[in-house]
Known about the structure:
By secondary structure, chain A is of the alpha/beta class. Chain A has 18 helices and 20 strands.
Amino acid sequence: MALLTLVRPSFYQDSVALLALARELRARPDVAEAAALMATPANRELLAQAGLLTAEAAAAGPNDLVIVIDAAPTAAVPARARAEELLSARRARREHGGRHAPRTIDGALRRMPDADLALISVPGVWAAAEARRALARGLHVMIWSDNVSIEDEVALKQLAARSGLLVLGPDCGTAYLGGIPLGFANLVPRGRVGMVAASGTGMQQVAALLAAQGEGISQAIGVGGRDMSLAVGGLMTLAALDALGADAGTEIIAVIGKRGAPAVRRAIETKLRAIGKPAVVALLGADIRTGTTHGITTVATLEDTCGAIVAGSRWSPRAFSLSPEDVRRQVEAARRGLPPGGTAIRGLYAGGTLAHEAALILEPWLGPIDTNMAPRPQPLASSRSRHQIVDLGADEHTVSRAHPMLDPTLRLEAIAAAARDDDVGVLLLDVVLGLGAATDPAGDLAPALEAARGRGRALAIVLSVIGTAADPQGLAGQIARLERAGAWVLPSNAQAARAAACIAGPDRVMNALLTENSP
Amino acid sequence: MIGHAPRASRIVGVSRLGDSAARRLAAGPRVIGRVHSVFERAVNLLGADGRLLTLHGPGPLAAPFAVALDERLPWRELEPGIPVHREGRGRLVLGALRLQYSAAQVVDTSIGAGSDPRALAAALAEGPRPPAAPSLASGIALEGRRRLAEGLRRRDTERFVDGARRLIGLGEGLTPAGDDLLVGSLAVARRFRPDFVLENPAIGQALANAAREGTTLVACEFLLEALEGRFSETVIALLVAADVPGARVALDDLLALGATSGADTAAGMRLAVEAIESAPLVAKAHR
């Protein structure tokens, strides 16, 4: 190994830059150690203890920057050149007025004094303090972070309500405000539909389906998955509904989420009646009674939300948008090679609400479904049902790793595991496109799906793609790639779940679904 | 030396400045000094007396020797070496820049004695602990921290100074991590054990000498101010917070400073609070 030293007399660089420089040098191949320190006596002693005190470093003074690199002879000189390059680049950036991202809310406000919303995406333990800071400055807040305590959520929302502000989230993945998509969001046109959603992927599914029907979004306000719980009391759902009621661009309102607390559901209904605009409510639960009263239509699936908005009073739910013949032909093709009389479904989802919706659709037809989702998560390792729906975006799967909408690793492993399980005959998936999602989700999944089907046994793959023609990934290309991998791609998650039920269940399930009968 | 002197003069208001900065500007000679160093967010001025003044944008004073301007610093117009002088009563001239400070709010950056460290202790114990600088885990630093804590706990001046000397100038950053840690400890000591620092002038003398010889100009300035009982507004806000939620917010602000400067300062505060809290009963009675 060789020791090389770079001394910059009276050179002043901020700490962030020096730490980043040392980190980058250490990450280079064949560099064993790199230090970038002011040459104070204490630091010279530190260098000596680490065997890095060269004669040049020993001669430097407290206001001199010293960089010492311990590397293989062939790597040391290029590493020192890189160090010089980094120091010069930073200075040049400063001298040429390069802009840097603000590091505080106040800094951002100075940059953009007319901003009225702060999007907070910091680790959960920090998020509440940042949100308080933003609210104190009169900003609406969107909290993308999860792992914010329920106590903090309630306190923040009460503070916001007193100040006439909105808190979107915590764990709010998607919003459209003033025509601007925030977070994970599909590119959809502006239009007349205002949404309040306690679900990011639920909002995306409805927005994408509406876009396919030529409908657009006026405002879509995510409130976080816990807002409709008794503890939070729907504080922001109700505030968001007030905002949509007052918004001239919103002609019809959709409320999307899981079932929520009964008291909150009643409060939402009362609020919608008071607002007086037509509304569609999709609070997904097993005992939801669908129908229309006082201009409020209650539906059971995300797709039905879109149908009720588009068709209005002419709407009636349909199991499939394909013809019964097409469904039957596809189901029979998918069943080829599967054991007669039924097989197990393994749902591997990136979207939590999509997973919840799939379980709600499957259970009446196939019996109990094991899931890792509230309100009754099952211990999947000791599964009792042969059918499983797994929300891979749930907290227990995203500790120290990116969400499966960004990082497919976990789902690829789960697909391989399902392929090795001879009991599993149907894979049920969601693929989410749009801003913030992976750049090529179909390209990520397709090889794993092909490998799963190439194991010499039958395996049906059923999925839906949540996306629009305007999304950067290219909706048509993504669907084509997945179909080439052997997937049956359906227009919505609800239809994908029903298709999975048709394949995995006995014939009577398909017959009933195709004749629009109840389970 | 005058660098690229801009053609047009520009006046920028000063919104706030620390009391010691105000005194130095009022009492100093007409020629203040020169621009010492220029950073993305701050400019340091080196006075003829060898002391620093730091100019930065709007917001809390980042140092007791800081001057906060009404707007983001127009740093592109400055270069190290530009002379700085005073014009009339209340205007600083740096090349083509004129900083009007006559109407600025003078902020008291001194810290008074307090008796109840519970809010601070709870915030430090329960709040986030982002990693401090790696050098603070080195053998030299650990020994220095141990002696510093022991000195404070036992009111042992010699041990306290010995620990502090080991930390001065140690570690990463323009203000080395050891100095940040020491400033945090001195802040707590000044607030909750003021007699220990004030009744032992040897501490101030020894550490001031060690700082002048052993660390960077900027870190030295922080230490000299700390030894005189003056701290940044961020540190003061945490020390005087009346309750735990207030202390948590102040701690968040502190931790956001620098790469690890805030975390290193908080580590020093934690060390000092724990030392005071675990002090022998006889020593505690002095509080």
